[in-house]
Amino acid sequence: MSTAFDRNGSWSLDAADLRAWIGGLVGSGARVVAPAEREGLWTFRPLRSGEELALPAGFPAWSPKEFLFPRTETLFRYESSGGEPGLEDPVREDVPQVLFGLAPCDAAGLVRLDAVLGADPAYASRRALTTVVTLACDAARPECFCTTVGGSPHGEEGGDLLLVPSDGAFLLRPLTRKGTELAAGASASWAPATAEAWERARARLREVAEAVGRSPLAHGFAEGLERRFGSRAWQQVGRRCLGCSICTYVCPSCSCFDIQDEGSPGCGRRCRIWDSCTFGLFTLHASGHNPRPNQAARYRQRVLHKFSSYPLEHGGVPMCVGCGRCVRLCPAGLDVRETVERVLAEGKEPRHAGP
Amino acid sequence: MPAPDPASAPSLSREAPGNGNASPFRPRLFRIASYRDETPDVRTFRLERADGGGPLRWRPGQFVHVSVFGAGEAVFTLASSPSRGETVECTVRAVGKVTEALRGLGEGDVVGVRGPYGTAFPVDEWRGSDLAFVGGGIGMAALRAPLQWVLDHREEYGEIVVLNGARTVADLAYKDEMGEWGAVPATRVVRTVDPGGESPGWDGEVGLLPQVFERLALAPQGRIVVTCGPPVMLHYMFLALGRMGYAPERVVTTLENKMKCGLGLCGRCNVGRFFVCTDGPVVTWARLQGLPEDL
Q: Positive or negative CA dihedral for A344, A347, A348, A352?
């Protein structure tokens, strides 16, 4: 397709327009994933029709990463009943996919995943077939802190189209060529957005950004945390961690995985499974040696990877998009924002001390 | 961490992890050509390509993931030097699920192999230097490939000292090979066991490996020390090397950590900004000093 990418073009849509558009995409064979509610729990789910699109939608408890990085994924199957093992690649079921209605933090989370998993052929193949429609936030939740980590409730990072709530309807603007192409089949029937509508919407977006009310991380935070590897604060904060790893499972940017065989010696599959650095088994050697022998050391690894070692290797960008899920769901009440502030407030200490 | 880019990677530090769209997780098939027991729980396997593909190309110090289908994968150092031919050898101590399953296999059985991965020992940079290889227990397996390499290129290196230590005489690996190593000109092999680990008739040294090394009083001038062993041994080894005046840049080790992918993706071997699988496993003591104490 060779649709021109016009960054300045935008439309005004109502709910019926959106549902018709989604319906058309579903009908064309694309998998359209959007927030959906079941028994009170909001998650990202594939829609079967445009009518299933929930407007307004709740903020999903889980991030959308599983649609690019599945919780469990077959790497290959093995079969050796006839003597020597034969290996078989999994059948790729990759279809064009639309991730619809992602908050800007979740869209940015995909860019963080790209930085790590982009080198993986299975991930890259799904990613290439995925178009992201970001929905700007019309309210801030208590745990939100996107503005602390360089994001915004109307951020464009990771999105191909930006949808903005506007007086009960929506303004839609393509951010990439891919986004323009996704709208191309339906946009002829949409009304152009007016400058006045954008003006009102932007005023509202500024209010939401202020409502997040979080200041950016202190200058030099990544270096500061690296120098405080041995701070006693890690022990004081980290000993509250239960090691349940819910923070990792709901995180839009956590990407660590395990590899396990499932089956018998004669027949089975090797799969890749989500894993977490906050589990004790994560680093346990077969010899019994564990380089991170206590929960405080494991909690420190998660926080430092997100806010120190990753940003130091990736132009200062934290491996965190401020969605606040980990803050909301931690059973021990750990708050990564408070942890970072607490450690940075400590004096420098030698790297060999600590948990 | 971004994927290592083969085009921009320094030639001595990284191997290209995958090729094109082929799954980097799909192993090649190798057959157990033979095996030899080193100790009651350590076995050296010789592996030959079994799926019709070409031989493995590796450099001393690199590692592979070996699969026993149904049990899983585990990381082993390539214990043989490419100068000894295309057959791959891995020396494995049975301590976990995969290593126990591997021990249950016999000649002719097929396993999976992927790799090689990681950094290699800078054997070219060592030319002209005296060398000391200090291995504790199964750690000696990681030193055997560079040792074979320098023995096979004997004229390029200075004096070679091998210190092979274990808890007991029975636990000493490569008993059958040490005589061959020591027969190479200007090469000295010292065997040692921990106090209490000696058996009647033992004619080697007795003492903790770092202490025995210190007793050898090898002058640091012009010498590279290559060492591998359990964390507690390395801790005391570095203290001894410091006392003896060795520069951290002249001491090389190879790191062990839990690794699942070998590609810098799974996050398991990450320590600070360092990934053992792609930035290591071979590192200098100097580099190790810059890492957080999280290994």
A: negative
